[in-house]
Amino acid sequence: MTIVTEDDPSTVAARAVERLRLAEARLARRRQTDCGPSENARAAMRLILERTDDGGTVTPTEIAQALAVSTASVTGMLDRLAAGGLIGFVANPADRRSKFVVPFDRSTDADAIDPVTARIREFALDLPDGAASQLADFLDRVREVVDAECR
Predict the structure, then answer these.
(1) CB atoms within 10 A of CB 136
(2) What is the reported pTM?
(3) Contact 31/37 with Cβ under 8 angstroms?
């Protein structure tokens, strides 16, 4: 049997992650109702911008797969992003039935789409050398546990 104390490093870390998860859940609820584009729309915009910046393309189906949501929900989300002037569509020259999603305004800063990430980047600049990699490894392991739950 393991005895856990309040200042045990594993307890401190686990509680910090739990506070983060609760804060993320509250943010997701707020964004669903009154705080701009949904979490999925923000993730889609990041994917679109990343692919475009890398010289690639992305289709609505690829976005649905990346977000693990239905193509129907992606269609509605992309229609709202297009109506807001954030994206457009171009025909896929290799497949006339397919289209690529492209950003309208290439001066859009990905951090402006997700200001939370911009703030996190600022905080990361204050981390000691090597700490960012350790923290990223730890959080990736936490993410793997969360992703594996209820599958």
Answers:
(1) 11
(2) 0.56
(3) yes
pLDDT tens digits for 55-114? 999 999 999 999 999 999 999 999 988 887 889 999 999 888 899 999 986 666 666 766
Length of the chain: 151
Decide: residue 41, CB within 10 A, 0-12 exposed, 13-18 middle, 19+ buried: buried
Alpha carbon distance 73, 6 (integer Å): 44
17 neighbors 142 (Cβ within 8 angstroms)? yes
Q: What is the 3-state secondary structure (H, E, C) of the chain?
A: CCCCCCCCHHHHHHHHHHHHHHHHHHHHHHHHHCCCCCHHHHHHHHHHHHHHHCCCCCCHHHHHHHHCCCHHHHHHHHHHHHHCCCEEEEEECCEEEEEEEEECCCCCCHHHHCHHHHHHHHHHCCCCCCHHHHHHHHHHHHHHHHHHCCC
Residue 88 near residue 102 (C-beta atoms within 8 A): yes
